[in-house]
Design goal:
By secondary structure, this protein is an alpha/beta fold. It contains four helices and seven strands. Helix 1 packs parallel to helix 2.
Amino acid sequence: MPDDQFPVQWMGLRAIVAFPGHVDVSNVDQLRDRLLSVINRGADVVVADMTGTLSCDHAAMDAIARAWQRAAVSGAQLQLVVTAPVIRRVLGIEGLDRVVSIYPSLEAAAAGPPVPPPLSLDEPPGSLAGDPAAGAITPAVTANPSPRSSTETTSG
């Protein structure tokens, strides 16, 4: 995979991965591999720079979802920087705007308040909605908590 197709800029343990103008089936496998390799190399924060991205398809959203899952398992954070309204709409349709932090610029992502740790895979997607400490653009959603047995006890 050519390094200039998805350049990565490292700042300590923070990695910024530049997305191309169009993400579709022709390049999504390489993009997914790049995101996962950056997470596997130990990045604490992976910023997906989508400021130049004008279009993407479902495959791109799947790649972002897989990267978010790998980041969550690794204890890392995935942040998206999105400027195109059409990309924001696709993220909303796919539900990724409820679990991935989205910023309007690289400066906002770097300067914004700390992003909370990724949700656990068992936590409902809307649990951080409306949390001003999240620093991300997320809609308020109503989510039902995970069902718990009323006989559940904790031991101490």
